[in-house]
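Re: the multi-chain job from yesterday

Posting the exact lines I submitted so nobody has to dig through the queue logs.
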Amino acid sequence: MLARRGRSPGAGPPGGYDKYAFEPFAVAVDLAVLTIRADALEVLLVERGQEPYAGHWALPGGFVLPAESAETAARRELAEETGLSDLSRLHLEQLRTYSDPGRDPRMRVVSVAFAALLPDPPEPHGGGDAAQARWQPYRTPGPLAFDHDRILADAHERVGAKLEYTCLATSFCPPEFTLGELRRVYETVWDTALDRPNFRRKVLATPGFVEPVPGAARLTGGRGKPAALYRAGGATALHPPLLRPPSEGRP
Amino acid sequence: MLARRGRSPGAGPPGGYDKYAFEPFAVAVDLAVLTIRADALEVLLVERGQEPYAGHWALPGGFVLPAESAETAARRELAEETGLSDLSRLHLEQLRTYSDPGRDPRMRVVSVAFAALLPDPPEPHGGGDAAQARWQPYRTPGPLAFDHDRILADAHERVGAKLEYTCLATSFCPPEFTLGELRRVYETVWDTALDRPNFRRKVLATPGFVEPVPGAARLTGGRGKPAALYRAGGATALHPPLLRPPSEGRP
DNA sequence: CCAAAAGTGTTAGGCCTACACCCATGA
DNA sequence: TCATGGGTGTAGGCCTAACACTTTTGG
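And the result, structure tokens for all chains:
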């Protein structure tokens, strides 16, 4: 240790320049892909076909290839899992990196976790690795493989917090959406009810959050007055923030 | 690729279970250690003694050892760099992971970056690897090695944002501090002036942010009325948040 | 006495909450 | 005509920014 107390990466990789002389790390990505279907928060899960955790559900993910960044690997894995071709509107956000030495029993795996938001989710085609992929309600999954319960909880918390001070909610919506649909994103992720008039004013008062689609309207639930359509605006931050109503947990 | 489209880590590491059969990754940590000295934001930098970037300044850091988590590696590296023995009050926050394939010319290095806050920083003893370590004003560093300019900027932004809605500011302060010292933390990181009376009320109105030290008082600048002393309270979150005054950049 | 910093008071305005109310549509 | 969801208006309250003022210390 003393001989190589590392200044990253000044002192050189462990063992000097012999890349193969040390216990190797594998670098993976894990994806907490969230969507909203029928006013319920859902998450994309895959069933593992092999040990360890065979038969358990897990977050999709995979190993980073030698020439890829973690972001690139995440987009590739997601495209493979969902069969989605147009990932241009996909919001991909790096959550954090999980690096406990024992998190994978086979070898040392450091995993970069991402939260991803999808509108209009396609049905995933069951993976070719004897594992099926499926959207499942956020609450039900029960114990996931590895530390994926924790990653999923972190993703939910991060997304919930980001709704407060960014325009992230539009990433859950189709290209054109009503303010009711946008409000339902907040209500679903936060699991609270919001005052409709106040929400409307708040969103419209934030420059660049949404911009109206001229003349267009749509019936949301088959009933009621047709609602005006909006597109995501250019803004990315919300000032002032749209705070979650204080609940029992948060005073 | 198709043979091993990885479900993390369902499909197994690249190359199946032969850990040594693929181009290895190295996993490093980089630390943006911030402190406040004489009302100025400073960052801990090391001068590189070897190629690449020999003679350039860089963030301290090093490689994760086989049995360590990234957090453990970060604390170890920081203790080695600064010679600080008591890291119990140290706030260490994972920033994000930088994984561009070309970020280190020698081999594939994936780096987990941390932001760390230190009160009363010790003088670092220059490293044994022909590299010196030094506190430097945040603004001056000029181009750092690798992508460390970006990491440092991300750390500053993250810390600035966290001051708004957490009690993080007390991590910059000694165990007992005055409200003036706490306010100067905000003013230094945000580079703005805050209204003293309003800041005081805001802090005292947040339950658990600070708690008074009975009877104690201290002169801050050699002049003026002695200020009451406070300790960090048990709370971790700020509701409602203490928002940065809107500036030109943020409307 | 003066400067500097801590601490207290006060006031005006803004934002936000909580409603009440009207409009348009399908059943 | 009723239920449902969209859209508008408004009164009250809380929070905050802004600034005046007092207190306590060192020079």
